[in-house]
Amino acid sequence: MPFQARGATASPDPHEQELDADLQTIRAEIRALQRRKRYLASSLLSSDSIQKLMRKPSQTPTSLREDVSPLAEAAGKHADSNHHRIAFGTTAFPFKDPSPSATPGNLLGVRIDVCTRGGRFAKPYYVLLRPEREKRLRVHRHTVPSFIDLPRLENVYLPSTGPRVEGENRAEGTGVQKGARNQDLRGFVRELRRELAAWHLREDTVQLLREKLGLCEALLIDPADRLTPEARGGIVALEPTSMEARYLRLEWEDGRVGRLKLSNSGIVERAVVIGDDGRDKIVEDAMTGGGGRVESLLERLRDRIGAT
Amino acid sequence: MARSKLIRAPTTASLPNNLRIPPTTPSLTKTLGKHSRQALIELALTWLDDQHLASFPPYLQSDARHDKDNEEALPYPAADTVEDARQAYMDFQDRKGAKREVLERILEGDWRHGITLRQLAMADLRYLDDHPTSLRWTALELSRTDTRRGISNDAPMTDWSASIPRTQVATFVKALQQEISPLVKAHYHLSRSSTLPLTFLRIFVLDTPYQTPRQSSEIFADSSRIIYVAFPDSCPYVYTSITTSPGSKANPSSNSAGTDSRSLLRLVRDAVPKALSRPHERYTLKATALAAKNLPTLLALRGPGRTTAANGAFCIFADAAVEGSPLDPRPSNTVSAEEYIRADSVDIAFDDKENVDIASASKTMPKREADLATPRDLSPQTSKKRRLATLSRFGCAEISSNPAPLDSLDVRLLDGPSNTKSTDDNVTEIADSGSATLPTVTLTFTGSDVVGGLRKLAELGIIDPERMPSWMTGEEAVSTAVVKGGKRLRSDV
């Protein structure tokens, strides 16, 4: 802090500025290293061998155990919950609503982890459920993107007994007694997770196709897998039409434009390609035919063009 | 004028893009004068761009030869070619100068024969992009009216994507035109926002059936005749710039005969969901009790992202600030929320306090610390406890990646007087005697960031963060609410 006053009054000296820049880079490096150290320390503590060692009381000196054991225990617990999150993808946790008007305010949290391309996990999705009468659950808060129709999902899998208009309609339509349907939390979470995972898969596939076409910089694929300019079939643009990535828009260098719809399972459901002289049925067939997997879309197009 | 001799017949067509407004219209000068110099130059260059040139060509020397009336009356000689005109604006860009000269060159020089409706629309949308808080927006929810299809029978459905209407721009505008053309003559302009994931539709309405309206040209730049509709990407919401609630269906007779600009706008707004509908897929607009000046706020609270249904105390989930990815070996209580939020960015840019001049240093210092330096009760335990309590109620909104400032919050309390807590000095209080037995209290908070302000009050210990109701923390994500027993009543939306 003593430098502050001087810095304010003195005119910027080039030498001093250079030193400042150096200081900043050094600080950034220190921070990065500190972060790395913490990472390594926690991974070490939660590693299997250390955990096993700590569980055998005879082999570790008492002084060391007293020092390390709370840390190791926390690390072990954390590793356990991480294993659950990775293996099952969906975990539950309790959460207390801090609002004073919420009584009793105990919420059931559901955390959904989706693994994306490049071995990373997307930000976890949360759904917080509020218990209501007769142990029925309602969705209280959630972080699910709004193109997934969570209210509809909730109505189907977590029907409420309350005097809701939708509930009455449903009872009339299906002839089921009001409130007779049980809530199916597993089904709810299963469908929700499927939608979220399908969305991330669609996004990842679009990214993969773009990388193959050389349309974006960051590469996760082997450069050898990149298509040569001739094999690209003249595709100059490929992008999702919206965040949902259900519809993709393609553009060829000769002015043809195409649009295709992806299903949740990664199949090209429908495709339309329009050029100056009407629809290009050959390319459309190549897109939807041959199993219709979107990952091999470009290869199918290339083969089709090579055949004709 | 030669124009008045034309045969005027009522049509259902929309107002043409190339309808020219005389540049002498004062309101036009005012509308364009709102822009900054830089924006005006860029607008003119866009207009001179090859793709727009055909729609509104500038006044060139070749035009000047045809009409001999107004020779040398104007200070700007007509440019020889389009290239010359472009060059003139490039020159403006290179040197400093007044906004006035650019505006005059546009109105009295290159477009002396008139600014077209389309140019005006482009100018207005540019203004929206530059000033995202210039209008007050209301968020409305698009919902399907044919609930029968939405309700599943016992066969499990596989498609859970929300019912967001998909339509082509031309189809949509045509359908909208069909809906409103018997009553309203309109000009439509659709454009993609350059900064936000939104598509704007600007509709200018006139209550005349004639193609060449007889109204004075003043009316074309009348901002009260313009309605903006914004369509955010991938979410079933629509934002409009008119603030009346869409409860118009309840009392259609009361003002259906009116032809003032307000009711015209309402007609247009009501036509939007109809134009989005298709057979077996009918949409209607529902109010969502949110209106704000800031478009990013609407996008955060009624948008496609994670924050739509997790605010206030729950924004820690929206920001994923409680726990890290399953691959993170660090126990979550050892990592700060800030680190989780910014995990994606490459490096956390902390400010180095050293050698920074004092002014900027005090600016970069978090406001919270500055405020907490002078708390009323000085015990560090209390202040720490309070800080934690505030954090648990408001989440980490301060460092959140998605701030959503509300400019007003209107709350009607239905509780009896004994339940209402003593109110603060900062609160404007309007008591209205709505029902005979129970006086209701309406609280209106206004400011640049209402929830942020309440948070600050809680941090300073003026509001008890543990006992404050959840609508004060922004958890409900609304700007108007009816509250009973600390809970928002949903039926009264």
Automatic annotation (TrEMBL), chain A:
It is found in: Chromosome, Centromere; Nucleus. The keyword Nucleus applies. Keywords: Centromere, Chromosome, Nucleus. GO terms for cellular component: Mis6-Sim4 complex; nucleus. Its main location: nucleus. The keyword Nucleotide-binding does not apply. InterPro entries: CENP-O (IPR018464). Belongs to the CENP-O/MCM21 family. PANTHER family: CENTROMERE PROTEIN O (PTHR14582:SF1), INNER KINETOCHORE SUBUNIT MAL2 (PTHR14582). This is Cenp-O kinetochore centromere component. It comes from Penicillium ucsense.
UniProtKB/TrEMBL annotation, chain B:
Residues 361-385 are annotated as: Disordered. It holds the Pfam family CENP-N. One of its GO terms (biological process) is chromosome segregation. Transmembrane segments: none annotated. This is CHL4 family chromosome segregation protein.
